[in-house]
From TrEMBL:
<protein>
    <recommendedName>
        <fullName>dTDP-glucose 4,6-dehydratase</fullName>
        <ecNumber>4.2.1.46</ecNumber>
    </recommendedName>
</protein>
<feature type="domain" description="NAD(P)-binding">
    <location>
        <begin position="4"/>
        <end position="319"/>
    </location>
</feature>
<keyword id="KW-0456">Lyase</keyword>
<dbReference type="Pfam" id="PF16363">
    <property type="entry name" value="GDP_Man_Dehyd"/>
</dbReference>
<dbReference type="InterPro" id="IPR016040">
    <property type="entry name" value="NAD(P)-bd_dom"/>
</dbReference>
<dbReference type="InterPro" id="IPR036291">
    <property type="entry name" value="NAD(P)-bd_dom_sf"/>
</dbReference>
<keyword id="KW-0520">NAD</keyword>
<dbReference type="InterPro" id="IPR005888">
    <property type="entry name" value="dTDP_Gluc_deHydtase"/>
</dbReference>
<comment type="similarity">
    <text>Belongs to the NAD(P)-dependent epimerase/dehydratase family. dTDP-glucose dehydratase subfamily.</text>
</comment>
<dbReference type="GO" id="GO:0008460">
    <property type="term" value="F:dTDP-glucose 4,6-dehydratase activity"/>
</dbReference>
<dbReference type="InterPro" id="IPR002347">
    <property type="entry name" value="SDR_fam"/>
</dbReference>
<dbReference type="InterPro" id="IPR020904">
    <property type="entry name" value="Sc_DH/Rdtase_CS"/>
</dbReference>
<dbReference type="GO" id="GO:0009225">
    <property type="term" value="P:nucleotide-sugar metabolic process"/>
</dbReference>
Length: 346
């Protein structure tokens, strides 16, 4: 399969690129290289003759048309997006521009290319989205593919809008689409403004470990390489027009998660005195902070046979090991604008 991956220099996109190349697929990585991108994430995959890079913005229709014409992909995996909720609170415009308008341009470029090919139903436009489109859960219940959309942040609203566009392009134009909505990812190459890398890196630097509100917000954590595996399964075997929820069934409150990371670090890089958990500090909550997300992954498990390869305990340990071994990678990214600052308190 030749797959056009958008956002392949980001956190999840790069995991998809690495796995697709390892499995012998041809990959065209199309990325605008925003502040969140790092081509080092795919440095090894880029050595492969099966890899090509296109430096382009998904809002640039002419550049998208040129990429489709030159590379003639069998499938698109669309991951390019603005992805940080806190940044979406401070500057929602970029999220509308990229996540909504950019997805519109991707759909139109894909539709024109697909029509020019004679509308093969083997073509796939796979839209990668988030469970945040469903809004928030109370103490019980799970998000299924039938849960009504109720996004609460500018980020999740922009992703919900893009999901609706993809659905409409399938219904109206017959574009062969599949959609996935995934829970919170973590693992290697996670950009150092997101919770897990912030906690690991602040802990090592002797800084406060900031927890929003009282730390009771619950997320369902999935190791990024398991997400990439699920995504390749869906693009290859997913039923036309179907959406699949992807989650690890690993619910943790933010406070539990941070304490688990501290416990791993206490063993792997012990402090002279005390525990890293002594550095935990509670800070003002994020406005509109969703209380709980939890995915029911029954559909992808039963229909496609997917299951995660690691537990959250194993995944967190692998993640800590990766950050301890890759200081050059994260130090360079910590110098980028806004990283390390408290954002999204508006
Ligand atoms: N991180 C998560 O936990 C999570 C969970 C579920 C779904 N998702 C979705 O997965 C996708 C990838 O998330 P991520 O965490 O890897 O994001 P990321 O911020 O790490 O990477 C995004 C990538 O997209 C590129 N990009 C941004 N704007 C672009 C544009 N206008 N044109 C071309 N490229 C552009 C960036 O340069 C970057 O390489 C997103 O669509 C996100 O909504 C993320």
């Amino acid at each position: 399969m030749k797959v056009l991956v958008t956002g392949g220099a980001g956190f999840i996109g790069s995991a998809v690129v690495r796995l697709a190349i390892a499995r012998g697929h041809q990959v065209v990585n199309l990325d605008a290289l925003t502040y969140a991108a790092c081509l080092e994430n795919v440095a090894e995959a880029a050595q492969s003759p099966n890899y090509a890079f296109v430096h382009a913005d998904i809002r640039d229709r002419a550049a998208l048309d040129a990429a489709f014409a030159e590379h003639a992909p069998d499938a698109v995996m669309h991951l390019a997006a603005e992805s940080h909720v806190d940044r979406s609170i401070d500057g929602p415009g970029a999220f509308i521009e990229t996540n909504v308008n950019g997805t519109y341009h991707m759909l139109e470029a894909a539709r024109a290319y697909w029509a020019a090919q004679g509308k093969p139903d083997t073509f796939r436009f796979h839209h990668i989205s988030t469970d945040e489109v469903y809004g928030t859960l109370g103490a019980t219940g799970l998000f299924t593919e039938e849960t009504p959309y109720a996004p609460n942040s500018p980020y999740s609203a922009s992703k919900a809008a893009s999901d609706h566009l993809v659905r409409a392009w399938a219904e109206t134009y017959g574009l062969p689409v599949v959609l996935t909505n995934c829970s919170n990812n973590y693992g290697p190459y996670h950009f150092p403004e997101k919770l897990i890398p912030v906690v690991i890196l602040n802990a090592l630097a002797g800084k406060d470990l900031p927890i929003y509100g009282d730390g009771s917000n619950v997320r369902d954590w999935l190791y990024v390489e398991d997400h990439a595996d699920a995504l390749l399964l869906v693009v290859e075997k997913g039923a036309l027009g179907r959406s699949y929820n992807i989650g690890g069934e690993n619910e943790r409150s933010n406070l539990q998660l941070v304490k688990a990371l501290c416990a791993i670090l206490d063993v792997k890089r012990p402090k002279e005195t005390g525990s890293y958990s002594d550095q935990i500090t509670f800070v003002t909550d994020r406005p509109g902070h969703d209380a709980r997300y939890a995915i029911d992954p029954t559909r992808i498990r039963t229909e496609l046979g997917w299951q995660p390869s690691v537990t959250v305990e194993e995944g967190l340990e692998k993640t800590v090991d990766w950050y301890l071994a890759n200081e050059d990678w994260w130090r360079a990214l910590q110098a980028r604008a806004g990283v390390g600052e408290r954002l999204g308190t508006a």
